[in-house]
Amino acid sequence: MKKWVFPGEILSNPSDIHSSMSKIEFRALLEGTGAVHMEKAVDRCLEASSLSREDQRRTWVAQDRANSSFRLAGNVYSNRDRIASILGVERDKVPRLILSAMEGPVPPQDISIPGLYRTVEPDDLPIPTYYEGDGGPYITSGIFHAVRKGRGNLSFHRMMYLGGGRFAIRVVPRHLRALMDEALSSGQELRVCVSIGCDIASLISASCSARYGMDEFEIASSLHRSATGEPLRTIYEDGLRAPEGSEIILYGRIGKETASEGPFVDITGTVDNTGMEGQPVFTVDTAYAREDPIMHVLLPGGLEHYLLMGLPKEPAILSSVSKVVPKVHAVRLTEGGCCWLHGIVSITSQKSGDGKNAAMAAFTGHPSMKRVMIVDDDIDIFDDEEVEWALATRFQAGRDLVVVEGARGSTLDPSLAEDGTTSKMGIDATMPFGDRSGFRRVKV
Asked: Whose CA is closest to 146, among 251, 248, 218?
């Protein structure tokens, strides 16, 4: 088994890094946002997820019952307003900020691993079991970094622990899969770094839909600079990166071995069995944890899962709709639609039909979405009552409904047809042109 060795200077004093700790670092956020520190230790098996479900907007921290050298933390990024505040913008500006970071990437600043990290055994990690019936304990908050022939990729993948430093990982046919296939076709394993307990800039970037070959760490660095004035600092080893301040870092490889993965609860809160036919195995060569490490307990099918997976898709919707309607004010993938399947976009219409065109463009920006509502800019899309009021007073199904049959749908949608297609519904709830006085809400 390979031992990963870091070249360069190693900080000898753990306090050296605390003095430069970024305000958006995972641990700094927990210390600065009033997280509830539980008095009693929490069982990683089912109890931790139950604690998250009790109040998903409450961030909590607790000692791990089975291994007191670790702590657990949940619901860290489960509030849209909190995420916006960390990034230094209002909530409706987050998609535009992410889009700007994607268009203006910034190289991260590479550093050697600080001295506050120590090696640990993978079997000692406090890996949660979230639901009865899960295939095993899972890491849900790990972001993977892989590089091959100059092409880098940062992405999320759920990780079912098999024991002995081996994880079955769910990898769909996107960028990491392409890098894996390329390595395996050359008779090589793909080297990978997994970071757990990360800053919001890195987590958002890991879910962005960047072009193949673009290293999403450059998006994270741009977001980090917007929030702090400084680029993201990344722990660098032989081409692989982990965000500075990551609580746990796993270095290893993905080879030819496969294993059954799941069943597991995914974003819709329903059981996903798609990994049972066999998924790639990630083998850990070296595991590092910082002092008093914290496992990020990311509840599957919960608000934190919704936002970290869905919010980074909103910039693509914004970009797509902006190509057909010049004035796009806000975009939201809704919590009721798992921040994945349902969306709302507010625009300023300039001519008849703009609402319908905006709906079709929104589907292009996020193909997994199956219902989108277009509203005027006087509607607060983050207020569900206002959105429903627009639907009640400005929409007629015979005139304003667009239905697309047989479109490609999200594999996460349990209602998909057997061939994987779905029906998509665009709702134009904007005011018709002409005299609009009868459609405006009277302000008291």
From this structure: 251
**221: containing domain:** 15-35+106-291
Provide the β-strand partners of residue 108: none
Cα distance between residue 430 and residue 441, in whole Å = 13
**pTM of the entire predicted model:** 0.93
Same domain, 113 and 164: yes
pLDDT for 108-126, tens place per residue?
Answer: 999 999 999 999 999 999 9
Q: What is the CATH number of the domain that holds 341?
A: 3.40.1670.10
pLDDT of res. 274: 84
Cα–Cα distance, 352 to 385 (Å, whole number): 26
Distances, alpha carbon 159 to alpha carbons 134, 165, 168, 253, 290, in Å: 12, 11, 6, 14, 21
Contact 60, 75 (CB under 8 A): yes
For residue 223, is it within any domain? yes
The DSSP secondary structure of 301-349, one letter per residue, reads TSHHHHHHHHGGGHHHHHHHHHTT-S-EEEEEE-GGGTTTTEEEEEE--
Same-domain status, 325 and 255 = no
Total domains present in the chain: 2
Q: SS3 of 257, please?
A: strand
Whether residues 268 and 316 fall in one domain: no
* Active site amino acids: 266
Model confidence over 288-335: pLDDT tens digits?
A: 999 999 999 999 999 999 999 999 999 999 999 999 998 999 999 999
Whether 84 has a pLDDT exceeding 90, the answer reads yes
